[in-house]
Give the backbone structure.
Amino acid sequence: MTKQPTIGESLRSQGISRREFMKFCTTAASLMAISPALIPQLAKALENTPRQSVIWLSFQECTGCTESLTRSHAPNLESLIFNTISLDYHHTLQAASGEAAELARAEAMKANNGKYLLVVDGSIPLANPGYSTIAGMSNKDILLEVAQGAKAVIAVGTCAAFGGLPKAAPNPTGAVAVQDLITDKPIVNVPGCPPIPIVISSVIAHYVTFGVLPQLDGLKRPLSFFGQNIHDRCYRRPFYERGWFAESFDDEGAKQGWCLYKLGCKGPVTYNACAIFKWNDAVSFPIEAGHGCLGCSEPDFWDAGGFYQALSVPLTGTATAVSYAMVGGAALGVVGGLLNRQKKSEAKQHHEVVSIADLKRT
Amino acid sequence: MSAATFARGYQALKENIDISIAAYFQSCVHCGMCADACLFYTETNDPKYTPIHKLAPLRKVWEQEYTLLGRLKVWLGLAQPLKDEELAEWKEYIYDSCTLCGRCSMVCPVGNDLVYMIRKAREGMAAAGHAPAGLIGATTRAIQIGSPMGLKWLALQTQIKHVENDTGLTIPIDQVGAEFLVLMSAMEIINFPEYLAAVAKIMKHVGKTWTISTEAFEATNSGIQIGASDIAKELVSRIVKAAEKLQVKTVISPECGHAYMAIRWEGPNLMGRYFKFQVKHILEVLDEFRDQGKLKTDGIFETARLTYHDPCQIARRGGVIEQPRNLLKLIARNFVEMADHGKMNWCCGGGGGVSAIDEAHELRTKVFNRKKNQLQELKVEKLVTACANCRIIIEEGFEAYQMELPIIGLTEMVAEHLVEK
């Protein structure tokens, strides 16, 4: 097999200047909260590393993640980095088809056994393997097979990370997330419906540079992107603090750009970087366009109550139990309060006037 | 004859726990920030003086009487009910090491009014017979004789004669319809009769009618310090009765911290009604005179480097902060502020009745260290204040630490600078 060109060589062959390359390294470093002192190291690593072999598997998905990552605002440095990895298998993007395509996958797996990165978008149906197959193989089988020789797995999009839309109640296909099936490999979840393009390229750059995955949160999401919620970074936050809310989508508050909390915005419970990086080359993001956050990067966002229901409204199902508990609690509180009041008023009734003769003991 | 018993004390604690106290205990996050606000903790570094710890018995009663969990704990034998020995032990915390200065209430992040709770806890302590002997004595004298220091009208009458002889001014007595009723604190009568002379001079200067009452001349209220509301009410009602009989418009609380708190804030609550007159601190009255342009100064300014000690009950708990500064600007050129002045001032260590507790003498001398350091840092040549009790405590502190610094009441100082008419 011919020697893989390094990323640096590959970039130069495509006419990318050193300056642009360094700019990308700096951006990537700052995005991942890496010390500026490490930027040269990042650049050196990217420059000299053989192109990372990546196998991309798509299961129950809508291709929105691929759209987001490869096309949404190409060409830019994110997509260039994609050119610099060796994307050895990707249903949507590869030219090959049929047996040739599957052969490419098998070859890549063999040549880079234990070293390639596996990127997955889409969830895996377990109810019936026939719901989604590739070249006659069920999604589950192909995932387990490819994951075996992978160095790490990146689950792109909410479907791959948490089951996403296919898993929405009543989950007819028995969809599960990648992490439900793969337990012996390092996994990074990059959720979002779709996820922000630069997040995936940054995670790969981090992996290529340091040989390890970035720091993750409890849901295995890169902390540097998912460490803060939308609400805390939202430009409409000051209105929330003042209690200025849009009550409907066409009232004065909505026109003035006030907080969308009451219209069901899930920003306060959604950890993602949309409010910072925004979308479409940093043009806007849902809240800026006048619509509340749907919470798409959170597990089971589809079943987390209505999109237009304010967060403080209890979800259906638990609502009855909660209201009974509330009524019960309130009743207990009232009874307790009455008992205490009685005790206190008794204590008051039994008040014995303290005179100077009562200050000492006999 | 009735007497104090533990049962009466417990009953009083139970009776004094109100909605506020329940909410405070429930809100307490055990952060300990009140410790750093308390003079007795900062100067001793002994955690037993943490303000909220001083309330442990009260908390216990609240928990075991008014919360389900607390009752369960007692029932299951997980907690012991309050004992008399605990109250006896806590006497040092509730009386000796608390001047009711209220600094802890200012810093509490959840807004608990700790000083309010100490005041209420004292009700139980007094009824249980755990009040300090010094305070019991003072309270008994206040009720029986009319003044905590055992002064009768005769003593004041003698001082009045002295003042009249010295100044050539007349001190009006029992004048019906006068605008102001002037009260005195026992300490002023004995130690600082200059105050009376100053008031006489200022009243003549501004042309206002005023009077002293033979029936209620004592402004202090030991009932509040010891924590016996029934007694406090009796003491306040003497003033109210006299003021309403003389039909005065305003009662002037003297240069005494807790007297002001007692009459102005606790008074109407104790009486359960509004007064027919206003209550003002002498500094408030003087500042009003200044504002109306009635104070004509002689143009000779104090040149000594001086500072003002904010008495806790007047500044932090009374809100009289701007007034003394306005007055000082009128007469002093070289006035400097102490660190933490105004509402966050540090107590002299002897307020809230502590000055009357003999066994607390050593402790309060120790904690005076804070005020001593504050003053030494400022390198002032004179100290001005507006509370006779602070003044005596500070003078005693100077003596103990072998410091020399003249100290003067602000009213007196203002009077000195008025032009003679």
